[in-house]
Amino acid sequence: MITDPLGTAPRLHRGSNQSPKVGIIHFGPGAFFRAFTAVYTAEAMAIAGGNWGVCAVSLRSATIRNKLEPQDYAYTSVTLAPDETRQDVIEVISSILVATEDPEAVLTAMAEPDVKIVSMTITEKGYCHNPSTGDLRLDHPDISHDLSNLNMPRSAIGYVVSALARRRLAGQRPFTILSCDNLPDNGTLTRRVVLSFAHAVSPDLAEWIEAEAKFPITMVDRITPATVDKDIASLSDRTGYLDLGCVMHEPFRQWVIQDDFVDGLHPDWGATGAQFVTDVAPFEKMKLRCLNGTHSALAYLGYLAGYETISDTVADPGFSSFVEIIWGSEIVPTVPQPEGENLTNYCADLKKRYQNPSIRHLTWQIAMDGSQKIPQRILGTIADCLNADRPFPSLALAIAGWMRFVGGTDEKGNPIKVSDPLADRLKSASDAHSAPADKVLSLLSISDIFDAKLAQNPIFVATVTSAYERLCQNGAQATINAMVGTDKVTSKPKTNTPLSNTSSI
Ligand code: CS2
Predict the structure, then answer these.
(1) Rounded to an integer, what distance in angstroms lies between the CA atom of residue 40 and that of residue 116?
(2) Are strands 84-90 and 75-81 parallel, antiparallel or unpaired?
(3) Phi, psi torsion values for 98, nearest 5 degrees
(4) How many beta carbons lie within 10 A of that of residue 331, not counting itself?
(5) pLDDT given at position 17
(6) CA separation for the pair 469, 101 (Å, rounded)
(7) What whole-number distance in Å separates Cα of residue 453 and Cα of residue 380?
(8) Please, are residues 45 and 223 in contact by the beta-carbon 8 Å criterion?
């Protein structure tokens, strides 16, 4: 008999018979939004009221809508502490629109005067910008499409400008555009790409947006791995219902928001612990460099060493020391301490968050889209180290790990599934040469990622090249062990096999 791996329990349904009135349109209803922004909003409404229901928009895929629609858009937020699990049903989403099915429905929803905020978690690549300069890529296929099809956009940026144009024509107030992605000065970047698009449509429109719309900067933080079937089945065992839209996340959360909204309107997120501040930059730098920077470093090097998750990676003594060293000697000295934070405690807490064995955050998942992530996570820190004449061997090793990863072959000679908008360019840059030093130069010449000043800095080139050569010769585990000195002590037995093949280098 075939048994359903997800179980046969009845489907979760909305408890209240009415969905909340919509005040927010949200682009990108993926796991992070459902584990973070949506939870804060549901809690804020429970405490302080307000019409802040969310109409979510999927730009392309119908998958999440299809999972949530039969549940009236209710889903479970599952908090996974090391020794405790808790679940809360969240009912803040009123509907999910799939943009490709009906672009007009999305634009109509965005033009509703009750909509005060358009928020987004569309990942770094969703901003269609050049990661090294922050400029909108007018040659991006979605952007050039949207500029000539304003009523049928494909990109979130196209939707925002098109909807703002409608609101302006109708004599309405604009909405606040709230980026919740891991980008430096995410609000400023969003303003920049929106204005650049709007300018190409009409300078008057751009002027109105610049004067009237708001783009607060935010720092968002909650580790939220992708949900897998096993998570759905175990939630079902615990609760007796089947929820295909559930999200798994750690207990920790932090949301720092610039207090700058159109007409001051937003849910009372402050009542649920969000911090409203005038300057988000120091918090953002702390988070992007200390958390996301080491996340990416551990993801590339951990993956190459044969580790599946971040918690498995930091359970290794070599990697555990490596992450401590990278914080203490290379990252923290470049980060100004934000008010109310203590960077030493912040990193110690981060280590505990990484160690949480209930969170199965795949190294492969974090390794995705590296071309869009490493500039703000790692390269800025390296530039600061160079300016301060501070050595940065661990950060260079992280870049070398990324280079090895995007080369597409792991240390056992198996193919790596590289998911990145620049995957083909990265692979050809790496394949174009056989000598490690030439591969490094070839990858460093990709100006969308590396600005010319950094790519031509001889210390940077030499440090990354040396790290890359060591990685190719010895593999990630041995390189890490040698770097932190754990090669001198007996380390615990590993599951991965020794390097079988370095000829692919
Ligand atoms: C991770 C982030 O996938 C990734 O690249 O580094 O999603 C990380 O888990 C979050 O930023 C934590 O807030």
Answers:
(1) 17
(2) antiparallel
(3) -105, 110
(4) 27
(5) 76
(6) 49
(7) 12
(8) no
| Amino acid, single-letter form, for residue 461 | V
Tell me how far apart the terminal alpha carbons of the chain are, to the nearest angstrom.
48
Count other Cβ atoms within 10 Å, centred on residue 117: 22
Please state the atom number of ligand 1 nearest to the C-alpha of residue 220.
13
CA angle, residues 211, 134, 283, in degrees to nearest 5: 80
* Ligand 1 atom with minimal separation from the 292 CA: 6
The pTM assigned to this predicted structure is 0.94
pLDDT band at 343 (very low <50, low <70, confident <90, very high): very high
Question: 106 C-alpha vs ligand 1 centroid, how far in Å?
Answer: 28
Residue 157 CA to residue 162 CA, distance in Å, equals 9
Token look-up 């009912």 returns 91
Q: Is-contact 336 299, C-beta < 8 A? A: no
Amino acid letter for position 204: D
Instruction: Count how many Cα atoms sit within 13 Å of the Cα of residue 264 in the half-sphere of its side chain.
Output: 0
Residue having the nearest C-alpha atom to atom 8 of ligand 1:
223
- Rounded distance between C-alpha atoms, residue 285 and residue 217, angstroms: 12
| pLDDT at 492 exceeding the cut of 60 | no
> What pLDDT is attached to residue 44?
98
Residue type, 68: L
Q: Which tens digit of pLDDT belongs to each residue from 439-468?
A: 999 999 999 999 999 999 999 999 999 999
Top mutation candidate among 250, 292, 361 for ligand 1, by most atoms within 8 Å of CB = 292
Nearest alpha carbon, ligand 1 atom 4: 366
Per the structure block, which two tokens stand in for 280? 């988000």
Task: Compute the distance between CA of residue 332 and CA of residue 212 in angstroms, rounded to an integer.
Answer: 37
Non-local CB neighbours of 412 within 8 Å, separated by 6+ positions: 496, 497, 499, 500, 501
Ligand 1 site: residues with CB under 6 angstroms?
Answer: 182, 221-223, 291-292, 295, 365-366, 373
Is the distance from CB of 323 to CB of 351 less than 8 angstroms? yes
Distance CA 381, CA 292 (A): 12
Task: Return the structure tokens found at 7.
Answer: 């179980």
Note the residue count of the chain: 505
CA of 394 to the centre of ligand 1 (A): 20
The DSSP letter of residue 60 is S
Residue nearest to atom 11 of ligand 1 (CA): 221
| Pairing of β 275-277 and β 53-58 | unpaired
In angstroms, what is the span from residue 34 Cα to ligand 1's centroid? 14
> For 162-214, what is each residue's pLDDT tens digit?
999 999 999 999 999 999 999 999 999 999 999 999 999 999 999 999 999 99
